[in-house]
Amino acid sequence: MKTVSVTTKAGVVEGTCDEKFAGVVDEFATNFEKRGEVGASCAITLDGKTVVDVWGGKKAPGGAPWDRDTLSIVFSSTKGGMCLCAHMLADRGLLDLDAPIVKYWPEFGQNGKEAALVSMALDHSVGVPHIREVPKKGDFNNYEHMVQVIAKEAPFWVPGTRNGYHAITMSWTVGEIVHRAAKKRMGRYFADEIAKPLDLEFWIGLPEAQEHRLAPMLPAPLPTDGVQSRFFKRATTDFTSPSHYFMRDFLAFEPNTREGRAAEIGAANGVTNARGLAGLYAPLANGGTHNGVRIVGKDTLTRMSRVAMATHEDGTLVIPTRFALGYMKTMDNRALGGVDAASCILTEAAFGHVGAGGSIGFADPECRMSFGYTMNQMGLGLLLNDRGQSLVDAAYRALGYRSNAGGAWIM
After folding, report:
1. 339 with 319: CB under 8 angstroms?
2. pLDDT at residue 250, rounded to an integer
3. Residue 225 has what pLDDT?
């Protein structure tokens, strides 16, 4: 591993890198020079060993340096950890993904959700992508309250008949299913069964003792000509649409408050860095085991990485999407009009999750690579912007992949 020290206009990029992955570090530095990066981290493992671990920039414009141990909210990249809890329980025989949700959570079976399956909560087809009532300040931080609201909510469609991204309600659909099956809250289960055994600095419900390490999230700057995407137009014209509720709820979420970080919001408020995201996916890139810690078996790994739901128009995001059970698959919407940063191009074997503003973590069992990228300066768009995608592309090129013209990286 080579020591990295590169001075950029936003600060020094530091860390270590296998020379084979020097192109990733080049792109990481370019993000600061040309793509508006403020502070960020990137980590990659290959065959379970770290080959990239870099960080740089500032915790805030003109502020303290983003150092090795800086943390940030990773928004929906949290879903990768939450959904892994469900798959671990399934692997251990404690959760049947094909069973009705009411087997574990009887109160969920109201207002047309009686036959919904556990798998539908994971693949975004269960039909409660958002709640209709306007949340009060702090509601999302009140886990018990939100579980009750979700249980009573009527579905937007018959569960299983279509899909629409469940941006924040997965916190209480998947989260409460895990709670009932594990007999402990999902955040605690994640800490005990995943973060601690894998030695990850990754929290779903941040302890106050870690607050000093946080870089606040910086909202994406709006374009001078306004937001023109099909998602934004749907959200601002159809006030009964999941798109509208997504925009409303995102604005109600409080990631830069102590309360917002301390709560258990399993779809949206995980706190970690790139090392934590890459570490989360390292066992999933290597047969289900990492450093002697078995997370899931190969059958479970196969099931969790397969496409479970795909559509030409996601009911929330208003773009074509492809999901495994809890994870995003490669999505290529580069040729689609009326969108902004609406792609996330991996290999067909890879699976993971992006977070609002551009973070990403994923596993690629095909090349035994795990990847993590976090940042504080959010970008516009629904999936990966050019900062994150440039790092992903450089990683695949380092491994000899030659093209993503077909919508997925290939050799």
Report:
1. yes
2. 85
3. 63
Closest CA to 26 of 38, 39, 42: 42
The pLDDT tens digits of the residues spanning 248-257 come to 988 888 899 9
Tokens of 236: 């601002």
**Chain position carrying tokens 């087809």:** 125
Cα–Cα distances (Å) from 231 to 263, 267, 268, in that order, read 28, 20, 19
Helix boundaries (H) for 72-185: 79-91, 118-122, 143-152, 170-182
Dihedral pair phi/psi, residue 211, rounded to 5°: -60, -35
Q: For residue 81, what are its two tokens? A: 């950890």
How far from 163 is each of 62, 66, 102, 155, CA to CA, in Å?
Answer: 43, 38, 20, 11
Q: What angle do CA 314, 271, 211 make, to 5 degrees?
A: 145
pTM for this entry:
0.97
Digit-coded pLDDT (tens) for 196-219: 999 999 999 999 999 999 999 999
C-beta of residue 43 within 8 angstroms of C-beta of residue 274 = yes
Please state, in angstroms and as integers, the Cα–Cα distance from residue 5 to each residue in 12, 83, 138, following that order. 7, 36, 42
Task: Give me the helix-helix angle, 79-91 and 298-305, nearest 10°.
Answer: 140
Report the C-alpha gap between 280 and 162 in whole angstroms: 29
Note the pLDDT of residue 229: 86
Amino acid at 218: L
Residue 267 backbone phi and psi in degrees, to 5: -95, -5
pLDDT 10s digits, 17-70: 999 999 999 999 999 999 999 999 999 999 999 999 999 999 999 999 999 999
Query: Contacts for 202-205 with beta carbons within 8 Å, 24 or more apart?
Result: 202/81, 202/270, 202/271, 202/272, 202/276, 202/277, 202/279, 202/280, 203/270, 203/271, 203/272, 204/78, 204/81, 204/82, 204/264, 204/265, 204/266, 204/269, 204/270, 204/271, 205/262, 205/263, 205/264, 205/269
- Helix, strand or coil for residue 42? strand
Averaged pLDDT, 367-386: 96
**300 has a pLDDT exceeding 70:** yes
Tokens of 5: 């020290």
Token pair for 190: 């994640």
Domains of the chain, first to last: 64-398 (3.40.710.10)
Whether 228 has a pLDDT exceeding 80, the answer reads no
